[in-house]
Design a protein that fits this description.
alpha+beta; 222 residues; 21% strand; seven-stranded mixed β-sheet; single chain
C-alpha cells in the first residue's frame, strides 16, 4: 500500500508541475523541462504475443538510452536514426517526444501508475489468500486428506481464486474508462468477487444435479 501511496503522490505532483525556471533542474525538482537528443534507432514489433515500441537515443548524460513509447504513432514510426527530437522530462520520467511539430506521449509517465499497481496487488491478494488458506488447511487435515484424498472443494476454491485474480482486469478497465482512482478499482473488484463465487456454486450445483445439495465453500480471505 505504501508503493501505491507514493505512486499517487508522484502522479499528483506531476499533474501540478509547471515549467522549470532553469534549463538544468535538480533530479528531484518538481518541474517540467525539455532537452534535445538524437535518435539512434527505432524498434517496432507487433506480434500476437509480443509488442515493442522503443525509441533508442544516442548516449547523452542525464538522458535515457531507451524510451518505451507505448505505440508506433503518431511519431515513432516516422523517426529515423540521426533525427533530432525534443524530450519533455519530469524528474526521471520522459513523458513526451516531439519532432517537426508532431508530439507523442510515452509510456514512461507517472499517470495511471497507481491504478496499474493496484491491479497487480489485487491479483496477488487472490492467489496469496488461496495458498495461505489451503496451506493452513493442509496442515490441520493432512491425515484426513492422506486417507480420503484431496476434497473436491479445493477445485472450487482454486477456480474462485483464479477468477478473483482475473476480476482485477475488468476493474482496471472500468476505472480507466471512467477516469477513477485506485479506491474505485478496489470497490469494483470487491463487488465482482462474490459474483464469481455465486457463479461457481451455481455451476457446481447444476453439474451435480437438480436435487443435489449445493456445495458450500468458505472464503479464502478468512
Amino acid at each position: 500500500m505504501a508503493v501505491i501511496s507514493d505512486t499517487l503522490e508522484d502522479e499528483h505532483l506531476y499533474l501540478q508541475a509547471t515549467a522549470c525556471p532553469n534549463a538544468a533542474p535538480a533530479p528531484t525538482e518538481n518541474c517540467i523541462h525539455s532537452r534535445s537528443a538524437r535518435v539512434a534507432g527505432v524498434v517496432i514489433r507487433e506480434e500476437a504475443k509480443y509488442e515493442e515500441f522503443t525509441l533508442r537515443l544516442l548516449e547523452d548524460a542525464g538522458l535515457p538510452e531507451e524510451i518505451d513509447m507505448g505505440s508506433e504513432g503518431p511519431l515513432l514510426k516516422h523517426l529515423n536514426p540521426g533525427d533530432e527530437v525534443n524530450l519533455t522530462l519530469w524528474r526521471d520520467y520522459t513523458v513526451a517526444v516531439a519532432h517537426d511539430g508532431t508530439v507523442q506521449g510515452t509510456a514512461d509517465t507517472p499517470e495511471g501508475g497507481a491504478v496499474f499497481i493496484t491491479t497487480i496487488v489485487l491479483a496477488l491478494i487472490s492467489a496469496g489468500a488461496f495458498l495461505l488458506h489451503t496451506g493452513g488447511t493442509a496442515l490441520t487435515r493432512a491425515g484426513t486428506w492422506a486417507r480420503d484424498g484431496l476434497p473436491a472443494v479445493l477445485v472450487v476454491r482454486a477456480k474462485w481464486a483464479f477468477g478473483s485474480a482475473l476480476c482485477a482486469l475488468p476493474a482496471l478497465f472500468l476505472v480507466d474508462l471512467l477516469d477513477l482512482g485506485p479506491a474505485a478499482e478496489v470497490l469494483a473488484w470487491c463487488a465482482m468477487v462474490p459474483l464469481v463465487r455465486w457463479y461457481l456454486q451455481w455451476q457446481s450445483g447444476r453439474h451435480r444435479g437438480a436435487h443435489a445439495r449445493p456445495l458450500t465453500t468458505r472464503s479464502p480471505l478468512r
